[in-house]
Amino acid sequence: MPTFAHTRTLDTDLADAEERVRAALQDEGFGVLTEIDIQATLKAKLDVETGPYKILGACNPPAAHRALEAEPLIGTMLPCNVVLRGVGDGRTEVAAIDPVASMAAVENDGLDEIAAEIRDRLRRAVDAA
């Protein structure tokens, strides 16, 4: 298990997993601001065949606002990425960034509590999906 992400594998395809993840994120106060279909992008740009892979950029507006007030350039690390990756046999791995790990590089104590809160919310969303 990586230390920079919280992961879970679901016994369902990527489309169903995405629906479940979006609902779980919403329950935790996140909206999805960005969506990148890596599979489609690599096919279109490089003519490379890959498995299903999507990145959802999730944002919790109140926490993002607090983080921006504590560190104006924290926007370089926002939104929080959630990955959905087909792993075969109709299963999908879901992974969410651990903001505590990524924010450690910033060295701003004002972000510690916010990062922990968002880490916990993302973990609950991944576990609930």
Automatic annotation (TrEMBL):
Residue intervals of the DUF302 domain: 36-99
Superkingdom per UniProt: Bacteria
InterPro entries in the record: DUF302, TT1751-like_sf, UCP021774
Pfam families for this protein: DUF302
PANTHER family: SLR5037 PROTEIN
Protein name: DUF302 domain-containing protein
Provenance organism: Rubrivirga marina
